From TrEMBL:
This is 4-diphosphocytidyl-2-C-methyl-D-erythritol kinase. It comes from the Bacteria. Residues 67-149 form the GHMP kinase N-terminal domain. ATP binds at P99, V100, A101, A102, G103, L104, A105, G106, G107, S108, T109. Its EC number is 2.7.1.148. Pfam families: GHMP_kinases_C, GHMP_kinases_N. The gene is ispE. It comes from Nodularia spumigena UHCC 0039.
Amino acid sequence: MRSYNLIAPAKINLYLEIISDRPDGYHELAMILQSIELADKINVQSLSTDRIRVNCNHPQVPTDKSNLAYRAAALMAAKFPEALAQYGGVEITINKQIPVAAGLAGGSTNAAAVLIGIDLLWKLGLTKPELEELGATLGSDIPFCVAGGTVIATGRGEKLSPLPSLDHIYIVLAKYRSLEVSTAWAYKTYRQEFGNTYLKDTENLAARAAAVHSEVIVKAILNKDTREIAQKLHNDLERVVLAAYPQVLQLRELFATQPGVLGTMMSGSGPTVFALVESEAQAQAVKLQMRAAIPDEDLELFVTRTITHGIQVASSI
Ligand code: ATP
C-alpha cells in the first residue's frame, strides 16, 4: 500500500481587484496571490477497494462528498478509471492547521495536494499545467495552490503569471475562530453595491487587469521592496466585508496602529486580516500586542511568512 505525506500551504491576497462580472456568474479578477508557510498536512494512501475516504481532525470540515479534497479525488477517478482499477481508491487524511472559511484557500490547497498525491500514487506523470487545468474545473484558487509562490492571477483567478518569489516576509494573521464570511455573499454584495461602476466596462479586461491597477504593487514586488509592497496592498472586498463585520474592521484598525507593522489588509473574502512585518521578532511582538489588546480566546493569531512554493511532498512510504 503506497502512501504520500504532502504539505499544503495557505495563501494570502496581496492584491484583489474586481474588474467586472462575467456571463458565467463569476467575476473577472486581478489578484496577486502569495503562498505562506502556514499549512495543512495531507496524507494520501491507496485502498484495496475503489472507494474514496476522507478523515479530518477539524470538526467544521465535512468528510463527505462536499469536501474539496474528496471532489479532487473523485475528479481523478472519473478522468483516470483505468488507474483507479489498477491502483485502487484513496484514503485522504487531513491534518488541518489552516483556519477554515478564512479567505486563506484552506479547501483549495487540500484539493491541490490530493491532485498531486493521486498523480504520484497512480504514476500518471501529469505536468504542473495539466494538474492546474484539472484543478481549475473544481475551484478558481486551486491552480494557484498547485503552482504556489508569488503569482498574478487573472480571469476568475485561474490564469496565472508567475512573479519573482517573495521569500521570508514575516506575517501576522488574525481571525476570530467563530466568525465566517461567505465568499459568495461577499462577491454578490460587492456586485449589488458597486456593480454599476464596472458593469459596462468590458473592453480588454484581462490586459487591463494585469497592467493598469496592480502596476504599482507589481513594480514593488519586482524590486523586492517590502515596505512599498506593504503600502500598496489592496482588496476591493474590504469595501463590503469591513462595513458588515465590525470585528474585521477592528482587527484591521488595530494592526494598523501596531509598531512594526508595514501594512495590513484582509485576505480574500475574509475574515482573516494579515499584517506584513519586517522581522520575525517584530512579528512575535505584534502578536503579543494584539493578544494584549484583545484577550478574547476566540481570536486566533499566527506568525507565519511568505514562501516560494506550493504543494510539497514531505515523505512517501
Ligand atoms: P478561499 O480563500 O478559497 O475562498 P476559504 O479559506 O475562505 O477559501 P475554506 O477553508 O476552503 O475557505 O472553507 C470554505 C468552506 O468549504 C468551509 O465552510 C468548509 O466547510 C468547506 N470545505 C470543504 N472542503 C474543505 C477542506 N478540505 N478544508 C476546509 N474547508 C472545506
